[in-house]
Amino acid sequence: MSDYGSRSERRRKRRQRTIRNRILLLLVLVIAAVGIVFAAKALFGGTEETQNFATKGSEEQNGESGTGGDGTEAPPETTEASAASVLEQANLLAASYDYDGAIDLIKAVSGYETQSELTAAISDFEATKATLVEYDVTQICHVFYHSLIVDPSIAFNLSDQGKVDDYNKVMTTIDEYNAITRQMYDKGYVLVKIHDMGTMIDGKMQKGKILLPPDKTPVVLSIDDVSYYEYMTGHGFASKIILDENGYPTNEMNMADGSVQVGSYDVVPLLEDFIKEHPDFSYKGARGIIALTGYDGILGYRTAPKYGDPGNENYKKSYETLNVEEERANATAVAARMKELGWEFASHTWGHKDMQLATMENLKVDMQKWLDQVNPLLGGDTDILIFPFGSDIGSWKNYDDNEKFDYLKSVGFDYYCNVDGNQPWVQVGSDYLRQARINLDGYEMWHHKDKLTRFFDVDSVFDKSRPTPVPPM
Q1: What are the φ/ψ torsions at residue 265 (nearest 5 degrees)?
Q2: What are the pLDDT digits (tens) for 5-56?
Q3: Is the domain of 304 the same as that of 250?
Q4: Which residues pair with 417 in a beta bridge?
Q5: What are 252's strand-pairing partners?
Q6: Which residues contact 61 (CB under 8 A, 6 or more apart)?
Q7: What is the pTM of this model?
Q8: For labeling, which of 151, 249, 401, 461 is most exposed (least CB within 10 Å)?
Q9: Residues 452 and 427 in one domain
Q10: Residue range 353-379, pLDDT digits in tens
């Protein structure tokens, strides 16, 4: 081989080594680059799941909520605004003595343990709860009204003196009611439900446990005959309970000029107004018991069969404009909303019957009408019976061997209320609870004001437009 050939071969081999080295260097650089990428991902990004977690965490730190790596909605972060809202709701529950409910509401907030305002509120609620005392349910009073007189200048100046006397004896004016409510509140009275006093468990009546601050006194409230009877039309009373634009009960009232006014003209909306300002007047949402008959309908709605049956002996030509099914639907809606707010309902018999004097046969006939015509409008679960005329189906002794009680119990009544205004009177039987009521009306204020002093000062409350002397019963 010539020198030229040798040199040529050496150059060719050098070029091959150069190309090979460059390829190896390129491979090394590629591998290094890939390694750097994976290292960066491991340090800063990670897998897709890790990246999603980091992204979500960043959003949460900025007060934003997004979706998780799987597309589901991320858990909401409790912001300062939402914590304030929860605290407001909890304080409202605590104001009505539901400290357990307030604490549970706060503990349902994710991460509440790290928020000083929420943990401090829990501590305050627990400390206040520890100061509560149990009240003897057998010492709880029960007060009641009828529909309020809105315009005494009409109610006390009718041509029918019999009606004037009746209104004067058993009704209370709206001004008297407002003053009584304020004074009872100032004295520390708190509304409780009759169901708070006792509960049926496995067929047995068990005493309830009511815990209140030492300076508070529980009381049950009821209102009789909230039917706005036809005979009351134009006599200075409200005419119906309706729901306002916010879903709260209010009244319609037919005015002398033919117009219809809407406002708080009776106990139900007036009490709602008061509790909105004074939630501590209500124990765990308690309101009052609405006692209903049925012969003229309920709550101002003409729901009885006579209103839609021209063949009924009590049908009137003026009923032709009534849509009875619509009346029943509206009454049902109002009653359901009232129950949501804490109101309870009771039977006052269908025809306002004296159940002590009624024969067993008449009692059953009347009650069956109430069960068929009224109870379904109230949800079908009414278990309270408020006796008309304040009478009872038995003496102060237990309802043992009492045929009327056996029947009433069989159709669903567990709670029974008569009238005995001398003292708190509660009887917890084996399978019922009985409570006496005290009437806050013209008759009691005029003839027995001393026994009302525990609730209010009669002289400062008594409406001066009321005719005196108030007639005896």
Answers
A1: -115, 5
A2: 444 444 444 445 544 545 444 444 444 444 443 433 333 343 333 333 333 3
A3: yes
A4: 386, 435
A5: 240, 262
A6: none
A7: 0.82
A8: 401
A9: yes
A10: 999 999 999 999 999 999 999 999 999
